[in-house]
Specification:
This protein is mainly α and 414 residues long. The chain has 17 helices and no strands. α3 crosses α8 and α16 packs antiparallel against α17.
């Protein structure tokens, strides 16, 4: 069943709800919660366990552009609804994993591939189509669902691990995805029909303003943006994935460490709403750069801090991560338009996911080499600075508010 509505904010309601159980909270933000229980059960070191959990994300990353192309052609709901069911089933399948590294990697790869449907792809595609003048705010509010998930899902995972073990915990997350994600998309998330949404001039089918995927790939801006989000994911997803193990290494219990990590979700939620509000008024790269520099102080707090400093560090890292995938969607729409939004978002998210997978593995690997997370956090700081430098080379928006339906080729590529 699908509710009939014309108010675009219902799409935001659906996105907030569905993104609580998107692949970020369910897979990325629980990485550190599952890491030590899996290490203990499988008798792996930290680098091996990090590799096992990160390797499958490579397959999930390359799946996102394919799903984006499919959504561009066949609508969001036709792809997302069956995909969510498959994702939930694959999470449940993790409970059957034997004590074998290759089989674990195979199973988790299936989870990551299926989980590509629960990236923000479909949600941001719908919102970018419904909103123009308030697109940044709408994306920011919608993506706050990821922050809510970051506060809730790791706590659920930790409690489920305590009661059912890590295998049963994955099955519990599968049920959660099914009960929350499926109704959210089925009821509220869809593309606007002609005359709906914020655009003053309805766009005829097939004439959506923007670059084709081939045209976008031929511009410097595409590669600058892809590189920036690869680096920021490597820095922030890589470091955040190891926050819970880092805190338990410092003497906190798993429950205490996971509760502290809840600040990460709160900060992510805050960052998304604030950046979404600001980018409708201020040039987005300026806003994003400010939030990407905040985690530098967070890394320092985690490296040498005691008392409340580690909690402050977690919050600052979450604040930086609160301006990534929603800004990826916003910048995609402003520089490349709507014509191939889904496919291009898929390419950008693939770059983002690859960076996150590499960052998670490197953090675990460097820990095994150095005996601490110091080298990984220093490297993350360098990567963030490089990401900001790339962001500042993007130049002015190609498709500002109400640009109309001018062909993309009329714009000089960067």
């Amino acid at each position: 069943m699908q509710i009939q509505f014309k108010n675009p904010w219902w799409v935001v309601v659906g996105a907030v709800t569905g993104l609580i159980v998107c692949n970020g909270p369910v897979l990325a933000f629980t990485f550190g919660v599952f890491l030590k229980p899996i290490m203990a059960d499988m008798h792996w070191d930290r680098g091996t366990a990090s590799f096992a959990l990160a390797f499958g994300e490579l397959f999930g990353a390359v799946t996102v552009p394919v799903l984006g192309l499919m959504m561009d052609r066949w609508t969001i709901r036709r792809i997302a609804l069956p995909g969510i069911v498959v994702f939930a089933a694959c999470l449940g399948l993790m409970g059957l994993t034997p004590h074998s590294l290759p089989v674990f990697i195979l199973f988790f790869s299936l989870v990551s591939i299926a989980g590509a449907i629960q990236t923000p792809l479909g949600y941001t595609k719908a919102i970018a189509a419904w909103f123009d003048r308030r697109r940044g705010l709408a994306l920011g509010i919608a993506m706050a669902g990821v922050g809510l998930g970051g506060m809730i899902v790791p706590q659920v995972a930790q409690a489920a691990i305590a009661h059912f073990g890590w295998r049963g915990a994955y099955a519990s997350l599968g049920v959660m995805v099914l009960l929350i994600g499926l109704p959210a998309v089925g009821l509220w998330v869809r593309e606007p029909r002609p005359g709906e949404g914020e655009r003053d001039r309805p766009t005829p089918a097939g004439l959506a303003p923007g670059f084709t995927a081939r045209e976008a790939l031929g511009t410097g801006r595409f590669w600058l943006l892809a590189g920036a989000f690869f680096l920021v994911a490597m820095a922030l997803l890589g470091s955040s994935a190891h926050v819970v193990p880092l805190l338990t290494d410092r003497g906190l219990t798993p429950a205490q460490a996971t509760a502290t990590f809840g600040l990460f979700g709160l900060a992510t939620l805050t960052g998304r709403v604030v950046t979404g509000f600001l980018v409708d008024r201020i040039f987005a790269p300026y806003v994003v750069a400010l939030f990407w520099f905040a985690p530098l102080a967070g890394f320092a707090a985690l490296l040498g801090g005691t008392g409340l400093l580690p909690a402050a560090g977690v919050f600052l890292i979450g604040l930086g991560l609160g301006s990534e995938v929603d800004m990826l969607a916003f910048l995609n729409s402003r520089y490349f338009g709507q014509r191939a939004f889904g496919q291009l978002y898929g390419y950008f998210f693939m770059s983002f996911a690859l960076g996150g997978a590499l960052g998670r593995f490197l953090a675990g690997y460097l820990f095994d080499l150095a005996g601490s997370y110091g080298p990984a956090l220093i490297g993350a700081g360098v990567a963030l600075a490089a990401a900001v430098a790339l962001l500042f080379r993007l130049g002015a928006y190609v498709y500002p508010v109400e640009h109309g339906i001018a062909p993309a080729l009329a714009v000089e590529p960067a």
